[in-house]
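Quick board copy: two proteins, each given as sequence then tokens.
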Amino acid sequence: MRIPEGLAPFIAAGAIGETDAAAAALLVDVARRDAAAEAAARQAAPRRGAKAAKARVTKAGDGAATPADAGRNEAWTEPSTTAWLGMCLALRTPRDGHTCVDLEDARAWAGEIDFDSDRHPAWPATAAEWVRELAAVDRLVGVPAERKPFVLDGTRLYLARSFGEEEGIARVIRGDTRVTVTVLLGGPGTGKTTTVAAELVRRFAEERPPPRLALAAPTAKAAARMTEVLKKRCGDDAALADLGVAVSAAVREAVLAAVDAAPATTVHKLLGANPAARRLFAFDARTPLPYDLVIVDECSMLASSLMHHLLAALAPDTEIRLVGDPDQLVSVEAGSVLADIRQIAARAGWEAAGRSRTLTVQRRFSTASGIGRLADAIRDGRAAEAVDALAAGTPDVRWVQTSHDVEEVVRKVVAEAHGLCAAAAAAADDVLARKGRMQVLCANRDGPRGVSGWNRRIEARLGDAARTPWYAGRPVMVTRNSRGLGLSNGDVGVVVPGRGPRMEAVFGTDARPVRVPVARLENVVTVHALTIHRSQGSEYDHVVVVLPEKKSRLLTRELLYTAVTRAVAQVTVIGAREVIEEAVGRPIRRATGLAHRL
């Protein structure tokens, strides 16, 4: 297995990684050996008589293989540097969140290559050149109908698995199967959960028997919030009446009982994920999920692969409702399914448009709300207006740029942490609710302005209150699923006194707490501060958004929008003007072919 020297400049420039090159070299080596073995077998095979050969040629018009056909795709062609590079880029795509390489825009993958320099390594000028060189390696690169490691679909290059998953998603959403997909889009506070509650009430009132219901979200935190908010909305007669739904006590109790019987869970748990088993998921096309209606919230976080497995596990005649905000952060894994659906749903004439609905009326923030104005400006990419909203001085938005003002924010955060410690030590019933009053959200994990720096700063100022590792009031987040404890990655809890000297962590909600001895907790981290990614699906009264001191390509429009919209009543943004403007002007761009297929 040898990596061509011609790839060295591209590895040095960061266009591809050494692991990508090594994986491509392994595939090339296997294909080369297979070709050599087949050639040797053909040479060793006894020659058939001229009569048999003549018969094969004669029958060629009937569709039988001719000698030329028999050799097609069997000869070995060494990949050119361009073909090598293309395969390496395709192997890199999942790591960068893409499902394919868009060869029309291949320079976006060029890393640090300076195309203005006369010495930059040769890079194909056109998509046609990429396609020609890749198609020549026909043992490895095939068209959609072929079973090859790489799939070339027009000017998009896929890994075969990614292509198959994207095709499967498109087939279900288009309506090519008996599964019905409906989509509900909208930003925070536009009434998505109220709309879902109204539809549930209506269906439970009209259908006999009522639908078998499953609720899910990408993370445990989002799932817990989905259950909590949905139950509240089902009991809000005024909100339901605004949507034209009158609910009787009997129907309301039936819906609440259904939600209580099967509260929202993670999509992985819904599918019965088990990485140690031969089948990754217990439920799939062979063993479909036993539900009539599946509702999935926060779908912007669903990766393409997980969406594929979810849709494939639905039984015929099942309806699935995908709910979410396509302007929020996409999955950390490959794909941007909800954003792709939004892109095509906005086009006139899309055949599935009747099954997609977008809510636009803002109900959480008033017209005078600074948070609402700031969020709208960020979402729409209007950097100047976002800066104006930050500088306007509204009661619910504060912009911090000086070290003196940062110190004032730190004191407020520490005071809130002290209050949490006191409430936990006193075994207050509302300790989890208190944790939701204020949250520091950082764009980075490391550094003084990252999660680690803020957590250390807060704990240092807590003094004696945080003198032991498991101090009362320590907020913790689970970082790995634990079936034995009934905890999922993303669950947030607070350490409280248990019986005697034992300390426990309380998870769940104040109404339905789950207590776990801290001695049994292994994979947890402190979350006085947490990353913006980790906050998705949550809400807090007051959010403190901490941005890097300098511009960063990791800081995007969607990241900033997600952070700001976690706030219910107040948001404080710590960051320089140029950093904010750069973020607002940098939307996430993911290469996928899903919108094209839809």
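And the next:
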Amino acid sequence: MSPRANQSSEVRELRERVSRLQEEILRLSQSVASAGSEPSPPQTDPNLLALERSNRDLQEFAFAISHDLQEPLRSILSLSELLRRRCGDRIDAGDLELLDQITRSAAGMRRLIEDLLRYSQAAHGATQFVTVDMNGVLQWVLSNLSSSIESAGAKITSSPLPTVHGDFTSLAQVLQNLISNALRYSKGTPKIEITAVSKDDHWIFSVRDEGIGIDPRYHAQIFGLFKRLHGPEHAGAGVGLAIAKRVVERHGGEIWVDSELGRGATFHFTIPA
């Protein structure tokens, strides 16, 4: 077999491995989505308790399989880069394009697996509820997003935020997902405002932007796993808001959005006082 034919064979083999992994990840995604869609049952019905245990087992299985899928993805990315370096100028345009597709597909699958792990953790992972200063949570999130904020030239303001009883890392996930979305779906220079007001026995936190907005018909849908309203020009797998919903619910709160197309969006979530 000629060197060029051998190169093409190796590229095709990598493509087949990526396709098999895509099928496995699709099945994993469907399992996680199915388990995550069931509401938490009351603790008195034996049948519903069995369903809860089944869902928990499925989530744990998905968590384990996600880890197992990471290694072959790393292997595919390493092999595609090795092929690219080894072949150099000898690789033809068709195989080079195929290698690029393999790299993009593998990187996308790795991000999806990471999102699935975060969702599984938000739904059933261990949490440590302590006294949490939400001002500190916000500062941590803004520091984490500093590169995106600076590159977008975003202006972010906040009112003083309260102290709540919750899990620092999980609450940071909520704010980071909401602020990231506000940056991603902005029109022009992003302007984002974070506020909190006390009402009855809970705090209502709000993240307001002046972005592209959301059709009211889809206000409930966007909190589902893998639910996206926008095309590939906007990055993301449709997991961030599903994670936020799970975290808020585990804190005994609710999350919703007020928005219209072209008029920005305000996401609200509650945390018990």
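Board note added afterward: Residues 37-43, 231-236 have pLDDT under 50 and may be disordered.
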